[in-house]
Specification:
The chain is of the alpha/beta class. The protein is built from 15 helices and 15 strands. 44% of the residues are buried.
Length: 433
Amino acid sequence: MRILFVHQNFPGQYKHLAPALANLPGNEVVAIGEESNVKRVRGGLHPRIRLLAYPEPRGASKETHHYLHSSEAAVRRGQAVLRLVMELRKQGFVPDVICAHPAWGEALFLKDVYPDARILLYLEFFYRASGSDMNFDGEFPTSFDDQCRVRIRNATQLISLEAADAGLSPTRWQRDQYPKAFQGLIRVVHDGVQTTLVCPGVVDDFPLPGGGRLRSGDEVITYVARNLEPYRGFHVFMRALPAVLRARPEAQVLIVGGDEVSYGRRLPPGQSYREIFCREIGSALDASRVHFTGQLPYRSFLDVLRLSSAHVYLTYPFVLSWSLLEAMSCACPIIASDTAPVREVVEAGRNGLLVDFFSPKAVAEKIISVLADPGQMTAMRAQARRDIQAHLDLESQTLPRQRALVERLAAGPGVHPSRNIFRDAMASGIGGE
């Protein structure tokens, strides 16, 4: 079987699937990514994956209508990939299956070069003017102009979907954001968690950014996001902290995340949401007990989770963070926002606690309650880990499903007849069959 992976940040979501397919005898795996990212990962790549790079394409011109900025940039990126795959075809490589992420335009022209290949798209998020992230938080409203713009932003994915044979989404909620006409093509299989690595453990010595140490047994509140921003409830968490710090004088707080903006409205140069909300809270935030670690190496991040006496995860209705699932796999005491798709994995009172996203007071009360009576979370912590092991373990659950999906596509009929092969196999739950 010949498989082509296309992802600007390769390996991206194919971190485990691509090597797993490359390990199988007889398979030939080629991957394509943007040049700057390829240089970064090439040294640590699987030896049987042939990695090719396209130069970073020019973005939209200043004269382009602002609704079309993302579309023009996507077309340019798609053309860069097109030139590369045309050359690849001249060399004789014709894939049976192409796995691609369509969000940035890389999948736009793949079917034109490889009309007989089956295309499997990684469908992460389809923008909606209502019912998901936009206008969820009245403190950071989106304009009507923004709503119109995101409708056009979806065009890139829709064009790619029209040429696809199947799709893969990590959660039911993410699948259901896509138009109903395409949902029958989409299988729900999460990327998975390496539960043997992401597990509870004892931490003897965790260094704090400003000096000092933490160890297992200390009272530690944890919060994790790629970047500290409203989409992940950073403002709500920060506003909850003064009450928690007053009520729990021994508690330490570890806040993991960078100062950039991954999602939502960007700030003027030189500003960050961390600075904004630290200023808002002022002296009520005890700097000797609240520690901003920035983004951490993965092993250090896991130690943060293992230290946790109360792990807070807040999010808009948006892409579910891997960090929540990793926290559950580490048997953290979970306090999470009562938002989709969180409810797919956290069941209140069974494997964690749910709280109103918009209520710092409720978040603070839940944290204080968990710290005051850790025993109330014992069964829930164990259940959270069991749930991840049973449904989202990478080796026994999600990776075999991903492989089976690719192999079934490769063995299937021609291009469009394969479109309905998963319609009767819709997932009953996250990562389900």
